[in-house]
Amino acid sequence: MTQAVPTSNPPAVPVHLRIVPREQHSISRKNISAASLRVLYRLNEAGFAAHLVGGAVRDLLLGGRPKDFDIATNATPEDVKRLFRNCRLIGRRFRLAHVVFGNEIVEVATFRGSSDDGSGDRHVVDGRIVRDNVYGSIEEDAVRRDFTVNALYYDIADFSVRDYVGGYEDLARRELRLIGDPVQRYREDPVRMLRAVRLAAKLDFSIAPEARAPFDELGELLLQAPPARLFDESLKLFLAGSGLKSFHALDSSGLLADVFPLTARALAFRGGGAFRAMIERGLAGTDARIAEGKSVTPAFLFAILLWGPLRAQVDREIAKGVDATLAWQRVSQQVMTEQTRHVAIPRRFGVMMHEIWLLQPRFELRQKKRVFRLLAHPRFRAAYDFLLLRADESPELAQLGEWWTQAQTAGHDALAAQLGTLVPTQADAADAEAVADITDAPKKRPRRRRRRPDASAGASPTAE
């Protein structure tokens, strides 16, 4: 049996162990997944330390039901793999063991050390840890975690909770406090600032003043974070059931401008109040759908967050005399390109966003042929829901939303008869041809390949 060997240097953060015995805390094994318990017991029986750690312990103590259960141990990843045939090792930046039980994956991490052991498995660039596979003791592992409430360990050996950095008291105060120097910890990983905002919104916690203070100075470090990672963090912010609270927290923290700069600028301009109200309605609706177990898509979320800057720029382009079709297509691409420099939006979501946006002007064109074509469009429902979100922009939009609501329930013949007698409005007539085909890419005819004449047929391709 091999175990992770503690590094020689002591933790830089003071450690004071507090053990909370089983009878003094609320964690019950009934609320821990069976797969996680199997891993914990097996590690313990093999002579290794085995602890539930992080958000699962935090949420169990708060009376919640965690979805994921992470385990920390002094067993190395190779040790874990030897114990479990259903284990696979992943990661180069942080080597982890994943033990797979059907659809459930139990993540097992070896205690991380607090100093470099000279092996070359820790690599720091400009204060950011880009690789860390140096192992150590549980005390060192505790001080390496981000917030004190995430550094609580549930020990399967005696069912106690072990607290090394004061997280148990911070949990009772409902306060997020960083372990160590906040500036240094944010420089190690700037995304921790977003995690602070997200967890505070999700748990209804406050952020300790010393943890909040560096946001203004260090928020720009988020520009160095991988855009793909910021996409994942955005989903956790807005699509985990507390999106509206997360938006308010992100905005008030000043970090919105570092992740969604176009959105922040549009909210700051005159008229940004209507855009803010639209975002709030959209996020409230998203939170409600998640609470009801309904599906949500990142495309709709990002279409909302970027609508303000998109619409303002389209209006400016059209005012300059740019063709409406060209203005919508050009600006939507520009907005997407600019945003993906900060948050990488996968192409499949980007395509859907473009369609939602570019269908909006087509709702104003209520000629018979165009109405039925729009009703049959595969993105009609998403675009229609988006139209309803915009209804408070003007009374005309509210009436337009009502008309399309009724159009969906009317029978085909009744709607056709109504459209045949409908008097076109000014919006219907104005630049109808330019706007109508805004999402209909011209269809290319297949090229017909000319047949080569046979050598015996002479020079003419028509020779017989």
What's a quick, concise take on this entry?
By secondary structure, the protein is of the alpha+beta class.
Which key phrases capture this entry?
single chain; 464 residues; alpha+beta; Beta Polymerase, domain 2; cca-adding enzyme, domain 2; 2 domains; eight-stranded mixed β-sheet; two-stranded antiparallel ribbon; disordered C terminus
Largest sheet: 8 strands, mixed
Low-confidence blocks of residues:
4-11, 117-131, 426-436, 452-464
Q: What fraction of the residues are assigned to beta strands by DSSP?
A: 5-15%
Helix content range of the residues, please?
40-55%
CATH level 3 topology of the largest domain = cca-adding enzyme, domain 2
Number of strands: 12
Q: By CATH's scheme, which homologous superfamily of the largest domain applies?
A: cca-adding enzyme, domain 2
CATH secondary-structure class of the largest domain: Mainly Alpha
> Largest beta sheet: what is the strand line-up?
1-10-9-2-3-6-5-4
Architecture (CATH level 2) name of the largest domain: Orthogonal Bundle
| Overall geometric form | elongated
Measured on Cα atoms, how large is the radius of gyration? 29 Å
Taking the alpha carbons of the first and last residues, their distance comes to 85 Å
